[in-house]
FAD-dependent oxidoreductase (Pseudonocardia humida), 407 residues
Amino acid sequence: MSASQSTAPQGRMRVLVIGAGFAGTTAAVRLAGRSRGRVDVTVVNPRPTFVNRLRLHHVAVGQRVAAPGLRDMLGAGVTFVEGAVTELDPDAGRAVVSGPDGRRDVPFDRVVLATGSITEPVPVPGGEHAHAVGDLASAHRLRPAFAALREGAEVAVVGGGFTGLETVAELAETRPDVRVRLVTAGEVGGWFSPRAGEHVLDSLAQLGVQTIGRTRVRAVEADRLLLDGGDEVPSELTVWCGGFAAPPLARESGIAVDDRGAVLTDGALRSVSHPAVLAVGDAGHVPGPGGDRYSMSCQAALPSAAQAADVLRAEALGLGPDGVAAFDLGFVARCVSLGSRRAVLQRTDRNDVARGWAWTGRAAVAAKWVQTRGVPSSIGVERRLPGAIRWPHSERVALRGAPSTAG
Ligand SMILES: Cc1cc2nc3c(=O)[nH]c(=O)nc-3n(C[C@H](O)[C@H](O)[C@H](O)COP(=O)(O)OP(=O)(O)OC[C@H]3O[C@@H](n4cnc5c(N)ncnc54)[C@H](O)[C@@H]3O)c2cc1C
């Protein structure tokens, strides 16, 4: 590792965490809390408040969403720097941060890339006409555009993944006076077990959403979508929910990345090209048990960040390479909201594939509420009780069921 010689006071390891979303905050508080004063942890983030991405579709429809201060979340054991890393030299162990106080160099021995993801660039012509909800700036742009729609206006959400489903339902529930459609290449609700999938379709129908599945969009125009096969869908406001991609920092820094810009890592979450770089959350591509990367999700973000903290702790304390086992996460369930009164909690297998039971009633709504409000709180728990975050491992996932309402 070229950036390995620590020059921090008393030989402490200097760890720079880039990004303070779910993964970056978790990695920082766990490492600071468990490294017995042997690590200096610095976190860089463009804004001083936490963005709960699970609720960006709520931001887009005008709801108030809590934005706790990052300095409080991170605690006194972590140095916070407001700004964005604009240049990263992993070989020299140097990052350039641009923020309200200008540009400054931040040296490091190890860097944790926790830069998350944004909505993928729209892969068809006319992307400039499309909105998104994948990052705060996009949600803020969508908010006034959505609020300003006239009665009877036509709205289309493109993409039937979890973000598309949650977004289309929220838009329709908030503005029953506009016509909302969901257009997606797959089958709407097709990811879920059959009865849960039916619940998704029923819920969208009750909200007045027209669903158009198995259809590809070939272009976005200011007032319509052009579909493969020649059909058109009127849309004065289009929200693209096609998928997430990592920001360009890693690629531009010469770090090996996948086709979505996420850092290719080994089981210790170290970059395969630059071992002084660890990547966590949406920014990292670590192979999951099925061979594919773990999906970009909170469920992977917190455990991978906790694992990276444990890897660096073991290194700083001289526990050797066997101090921490390779990263292993087993998915258990997925929870998807369909507006404020409907949701699905779907059991999955360890590879994040829907299997078995699903809850579709009030319990699912409550579970989603707890998830969207509770995940940020779990970072506070980790700060107070370092090591508190634990996760199911793929080979140990219990396959026991639960009361079945669907599936
Ligand atoms: C509407 C919506 C609903 C979702 N619902 C769910 C759900 O129900 N369940 C689920 O598991 N997942 C869900 N997700 C996905 C989930 O939000 C992400 O997987 C999760 O936020 C990833 O956490 P992260 O810490 O890796 O990245 P992020 O939360 O994106 O945090 C990355 C941070 O890095 C900062 N950053 C980026 N570049 C730089 C830079 N150059 N310098 C400094 N800082 C930088 C960003 O500003 C940000 O603060 C949803 C996402 C959206 C948009």
